[in-house]
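Handout, section 4.2: multi-component inputs.
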Amino acid sequence: MVALRGDAAELTTAGRLRRVARAALPGVVAGLEPSSPRWVWDTTAVYPELLAAGVRVARAWDLRLARAILRRAAGAPGRVAALPPDAWDDAGQADDGALPLDLGGDLDPVEEHARQLAEVADAARPAALRLLVTAESAGALAAAEMRFAGLPWRRDVHERLLAEVLGPRVPADRRPEGLERLLVGIRSALGAPALNPDSPVELIRALRAAGVEVESTRASELRGVDHAAVAPLLEYKKLARLHAANGWAWLDAWVVDGRFHPEYLVGGVVTGRWAARGGGALQLPKQVRAAVQADPGWKLVVADAAQLEPRVLAGLAGDRAMAEAGRGRDLYAGIVATGAVATRQSAKVGMLGALYGATGGEGGRLVPRLAQRFPQALALVERAAREGERGGTVATLLGRATPPVPEERRALDREAAADGADERVQRRARAVARDRGRFTRNFVVQGTAAEWALCWLADLRGRLWAMGDGPLTARPHLVYFLHDEVLVHAPAEQAEAVAEAVRAAAAAAGRLLFADFPVDFPLDVAVVDRYADADAPAEDGPQADGVESSP
DNA sequence: CCCAAAGGCCAC
DNA sequence: AAACGTGGCCTTTGGG
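Output:
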């Protein structure tokens, strides 16, 4: 147990409290680590300074993450849920690079830990909940380590890419040449000499004045319009986005010493997925991924789980037919092989439609065909949707539950159910219920997939550490994580062994969650110099076992 | 000046 | 192509 209080750090080991100077903490932790403790702390507050001092730990129990999970975990006795909010409920991340959050005087981490352990022990499924907390805590360690190590980023490559399409760098308040050129074409085609295409209001007005009847200025809608302004406008939008989101200003702000150091928010999404703050770390456009390059003599091992969510659904529902469709091959190809649908694209659109709750369009049309072939899997998401529509909560495999329905929704339901209720209110209540149903439908799958990914990451982290010697960044180490994808930076001679470790970790994650149920979690793995070279094999092409390796 | 909503687009 | 889940973050716009 470690808690920070100003310049001091408090350690409790075997029930005995020790106070040490904060600067001495890394040495003390390093001294205790060989006895394999599970460090009980707020990872975001304590771990960065340990990493900065060269100290890595193996295991943790994150008191804040555990609190958030236990507040609404399925099958928990509810003692944590009943607590009034306190500092353990805070977001836990320093806002602005200021000092890590210290503990107030009254907060007793020993007491909180005991309360959390008791809550887990008395839950309906203690082992599942314990796994959720420890896996997410390991994720927090990995997140801090990835931020510390950073994603290798070639500023020169990124700048060359920007110069090619935007022209030379200009001051922040001016448009680069590449945009100015397109702007001239857009304005003349629309007869709007002062138009600012960055303003949707101005743009839709100019389009309509030029006889283009559109509902919005979205690129997806404009693509269907035949007008001379459309081509330069679509190009402008693309480049303007690159310039605004990942242009020179982004490089200045986020790439330091050849590394991008994003701040991950573990469990930051309601489903348990991670979010990120600053730099748009989880939305790196494919366009700029050429700038992500391994150091000389090193490689990037890029691995992503193939069709993760449908496979997780197969495991959750115990749907042997769906598991079988994905065994040793592309799951969507396997669905086609059953005869349920004709093409891989249909299988994918139909599955995503089932996971998202599509009602119309191609997705909605295909869902019943899948339901016929995979009744158990489809019934599971349908049940989750009905539960949400009723105003109930649902939970993932390991017990992470949805938040309760907001009071506004309950009030709306009451109003709609009253005698002589306004028809508009009733319609609104039904729409809100359907929204909630789509949320709970997706939650069980997205959330359980996030649990699989946490187990994968946690297992892999241990394997990578064991593959080398010395400090974290001298060994194969994680540098990026994106829902169902990881990047490992590794010495070139170890890259193939890392690829094997990544696969072994995926198999281990599958066993942790689904025991001996025969569902596969194959990966697309690429050993590359540049992230951009790791694109998955052509989706409609032949695909043996989802394995790819580039020179 | 700060702040939030709207529209839009990036990722999975 | 679209509209069916989870997010972050950009610019514009309008309010205090």
